[in-house]
């Protein structure tokens, strides 16, 4: 009984933190907040030629409690319910997040139009389309597909549920045809590439962003937006780039993977030897900072690409020290 009480108290605490969290505007969403720009992106992805931006209805959920969906855009056009999400960290769980997101959207649409789920009349729904724009450090194909059923014990294609996410790699040099059809997406790709290049040169984050802003203005990349919104863009990127982004820009992927693997093994076994103290302290510091920002255990685990059990162990240690 005591064990269950401890579990409930701990998970209630982080559930409450997640509910109270206010998701701030992020750059990708900010860039496509205008319907004309979002319509251009839709046309580029689908090979369509819609011209009337008023045909597009933005239905983005602003306060998603159960998921980290802070950069998403959701809209309806041509009887399609589109979810566009930007990701700088690859996660195989994106189809599951999409399923949960679409469920909430459909629930809202049914309630909005006062449809009867138990009635004899078929409730018509817009067709879901889930697109992910990826520009992380991990190597990915130019186009990929992720399936919810890959998470099932019986494998892809099994079960009665499916959610497919299409991933477009928008790192510099990728998907040139798509970029040619949507200049703003290309400009975003170039801008983020400049920031990352500066970070790779070991520049401090704020300096890296500021230099990238100046460089892109000089080259006519997002020029008008950056001139008018330099402060906002700087704030958005300072919010988006966390400690993990710094580590990825400084260390090679293999070094980081080895470090995290060693940390996970140590924390799960409760050991104090077998890994460097400085690395353990850094991981604990990162977890503490994310907790202070109101992030849940599951979100922290996802962002640090670390198992939930490892993060729970670290959180317990932090609580015992406080």
Question: Tags for this entry?
Answer:
disordered N terminus, about 325 residues, 6-stranded mixed β-sheet, alpha/beta, single chain
Furnish the topology, listing elements before pairings.
Layout: H1 2-20, H2 27-31, H3 35-46, E1 57-58, E2 73-77, E3 80-87, H4 94-112, E4 127-134, E5 143-147, E6 164-169, H5 176-181, H6 183-200, H7 205-219, H8 223-228, H9 230-240, H10 243-250, H11 253-269, H12 277-292, H13 297-303, H14 308-321
Question: How would you characterize the overall build of this protein?
Answer:
This protein has 322 residues and is an alpha/beta fold. It folds into 2 domains: 24-113 and 124-246, no CATH class; 263-321. The protein has 14 helices and 6 strands. The chain has helices at residues 2-20, 27-31, 35-46, 94-112, 176-181, 183-200, 205-219, 223-228, 230-240, 243-250, 253-269, 277-292, 297-303, 308-321, and strands spanning 57-58, 73-77, 80-87, 127-134, 143-147, 164-169. Strands 1-2-3-4-6-5 form a 6-stranded mixed β-sheet, with helices on one face. Strand 2 (73-77) and strand 3 (80-87) form a beta hairpin. It starts with a helix and ends with a helix.
């Amino acid at each position: 009984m005591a064990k269950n009480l401890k579990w409930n108290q701990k998970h209630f605490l982080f559930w409450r933190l997640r509910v109270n969290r206010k998701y701030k505007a992020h750059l990708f969403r900010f860039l496509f907040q205008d319907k004309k720009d979002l319509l251009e992106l839709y046309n580029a992805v689908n090979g369509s030629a819609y011209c009337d931006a008023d045909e597009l209805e933005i239905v983005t959920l602003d306060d998603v409690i159960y998921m980290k969906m802070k950069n998403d855009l959701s809209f309806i056009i041509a009887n399609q319910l589109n979810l566009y999400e930007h990701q700088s960290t690859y996660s195989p769980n994106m189809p599951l997040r999409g399923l949960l997101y679409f469920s909430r959207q459909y629930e809202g649409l049914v309630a909005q139009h006062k449809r009867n789920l138990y009635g004899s009349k078929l409730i018509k729904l817009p067709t879901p389309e889930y697109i992910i724009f990826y520009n992380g450090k991990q190597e990915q194909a130019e186009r990929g597909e992720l399936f919810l059923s890959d998470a099932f014990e019986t494998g892809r294609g099994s079960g009665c549920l499916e959610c497919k996410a299409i991933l477009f790699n928008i790192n510099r040099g990728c998907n040139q045809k798509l970029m040619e059809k949507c200049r703003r997406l290309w400009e975003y790709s170039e801008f983020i590439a400049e920031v990352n290049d500066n970070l790779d040169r070991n520049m401090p984050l704020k300096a890296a962003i500021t230099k990238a802003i100046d460089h892109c203005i000089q080259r006519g990349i997002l020029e008008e937006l950056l001139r008018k919104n330099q402060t906002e863009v700087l704030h958005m990127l300072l919010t988006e780039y966390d400690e993990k982004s710094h580590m990825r820009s400084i260390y090679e992927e293999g070094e980081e993977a080895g470090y995290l693997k060693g940390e996970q093994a140590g924390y799960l076994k409760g050991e104090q030897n077998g890994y460097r103290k400085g690395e353990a302290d850094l991981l604990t510091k990162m977890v503490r900072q994310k907790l202070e920002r109101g992030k849940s255990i599951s979100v922290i685990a996802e962002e640090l690409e670390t198992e939930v059990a490892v993060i729970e162990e670290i959180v317990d240690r932090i609580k015992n020290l406080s």
